[in-house]
Design goal:
Oligomer: single chain
Structural class: alpha/beta
Strand content: 25-35%
Shape: globular
Distance between the termini: 90 Å
Radius of gyration: 26 Å
Length: about 475
């Protein structure tokens, strides 16, 4: 009887020891994953303290580390040019193998509901082209998506829940961010290499919950009400989404970031913490967490689209868009997709997600992959204005093809005199880079605004049909 008990206890001890000894990986590491190509990709996990851990890719590279006193270890594994499938084996004496691993381009995609909006849409709110995309989806197409379910935490987490990595199959696609999916699919098709998307988003959230405690406090931002906010509405508290949905992913090696958020930060023009200051710090934080802190990783974001909000004529969304645009001057290697032409007055989630994805991909093709050569598709951006009584002439910066449409009235412009009352203006393209405005109600124009409302859709574009960025010449 004693011998039998001894054997049982010995067996249980052996099982417990083996179980403890086997390496543990964060959920972001799994079968079907994508690693960033031609880099030293971060791979990390936990093992018994002092254990030697070897990480080996079937492409012939390996790296070793020793688990620290806190059980954690991290290696940097050299990755080849895009390709696969490969296996990735992690061993502390007991091997753990990940299968069907691809190497290619990895992008982190985050934001609120317009990033979260899945291909299957929201209730009564469809996504253009989604059904055709799902019907055409084939698992052999080398696009993989890892999606994080909603989760929040007052404390920084080491691991998180991840749905994926998912193959390019209809059911998985239906749950995938439409903005991210169209962006990734275009990249995959045009680059002819695997693409991996990590999607971490939560609708209705401001930017502060996505920022780390260190990032916010370095700005002088007070966290004194964080627990109160968490108790009232957990996703509204500063840092809690970073703690649960970004920090556990770091330092996963990515090519860059796409960000679609801002609606919940309207109007965003607080003098101490304007949205441009927050978004710039957020972009730098991502580079510190998922790169080496340099500007080499692109940060591309989407302008919030026209929508009525409190009132179509109100300005809170206009101020936020203005703050978004200011980020471009503050954060190197950033880019903004203009969406002034695809809003909806009564639906805050525009259906035209394929176009948003295409415009994000255009930025990447031009800046990161060199696919467009000398082609310049720059959105028209206001440069200067000349006032002459009831006439104003605006000059824009854009690509060499100039402004459009030619010989047609352009919607979206308003002008005001010294009384600061704005009236609609008649606007037409003059030469290639000028727009001429007139207004019978204003004898001396002193200010011009273009689509500077919650909801106002303009028709000024460049020669490729990409819309002009909203702006104002005044600071009222």
């Amino acid at each position: 009887m004693r011998l039998r008990l001894y054997l049982i206890l010995s067996g249980l001890l052996l099982v417990a020891t083996v179980s403890h000894a086997k390496v543990r990986l964060p959920a972001i590491f799994s079968d079907n994953m994508v690693l960033q190509q031609q880099t030293r990709a971060a791979v990390w996990g936990k093992a018994a303290p002092g254990k030697k851990v070897t990480v080996k890719g079937s492409w012939g590279k390996s790296a070793r580390a020793e688990a620290g006193a806190d059980s954690t270890w991290l290696v940097r594994l050299e990755t080849p040019a895009a390709g696969g499938p490969y296996t990735l084996t992690i061993s502390d004496g007991q091997p753990l193998t990940l299968n069907n691993v691809l190497v290619g381009e990895v992008w982190l995609c985050s934001g609120q509901s317009n990033m979260e909006m899945p291909m299957r849409g929201y209730g009564r709110q469809p996504v253009e082209g989604a059904l055709d995309a799902m019907l055409a989806a084939e698992p052999s197409f080398p696009l993989r998506v890892a999606r994080l379910p909603r989760q929040a935490s007052m404390e920084r987490k080491w691991d998180c829940r991840v749905d994926g990595w998912n193959l390019n199959e209809p059911d998985a696609i239906s749950r995938t961010s439409a903005t991210a999916y169209y962006f990734g699919r275009i990249l995959c098709e045009r680059l002819h290499i695997p693409v991996g998307l990590i999607v971490s988003s939560w609708g209705g959230t401001a930017i502060e919950p996505w920022m780390s405690e260190e990032c916010l406090t370095s700005l002088g931002y007070s966290l004194s009400d964080r627990q109160k906010n968490y108790s009232a509405k957990k996703e509204s508290a500063p840092t809690v989404l970073y703690n649960a949905m970004l920090a556990p992913l770091a330092p996963f090696t990515v090519k860059g970031f796409i960000w679609y958020q801002g609606e919940s930060n309207r109007p965003g023009n607080d003098p101490e913490f304007p949205y441009s200051r927050l978004q710039t710090a957020f972009g730098k934080m991502l580079r510190d967490n998922f790169g080496d802190g340099s500007d080499k990783q692109p940060f591309y974001f989407v302008e919030i689209a026209p929508y009525n909000y409190s009132d179509a004529e109100a300005l809170e969304a206009a101020y936020l868009r203005e703050q978004q645009a200011r980020t471009l001057d503050l954060l190197p290697n950033s880019g903004m997709v203009v969406t002034n032409d695809i809003g909806n007055p009564v639906v805050i989630h525009p259906a035209q997600k394929p176009e948003v994805g295409r415009r994000l991909a255009l930025l990447a093709f031009k800046r990161d992959y060199g696919l467009l050569g000398e082609l310049d598709f720059s959105y028209p951006v206001y440069d200067s204005v000349k006032f002459e009584g009831s006439k104003a002439t605006l000059t824009f910066k854009t690509g060499p093809g100039g402004l459009a449409p030619l010989n047609q009235d352009i919607a979206g412009f308003e002008v005001a005199g010294s009384d600061r009352v704005f009236y609609p203006a008649t606007a037409r393209v003059g030469d290639w880079f000028n727009v001429e405005l007139t207004c019978e109600q204003v004898s001396e124009i002193v200010a011009v605004r273009y689509c500077f409302r919650n909801y106002k859709v303009g028709t000024l574009t460049n020669v490729f049909g990409l819309p002009a960025r909203p702006f104002r010449t005044d600071n009222w």
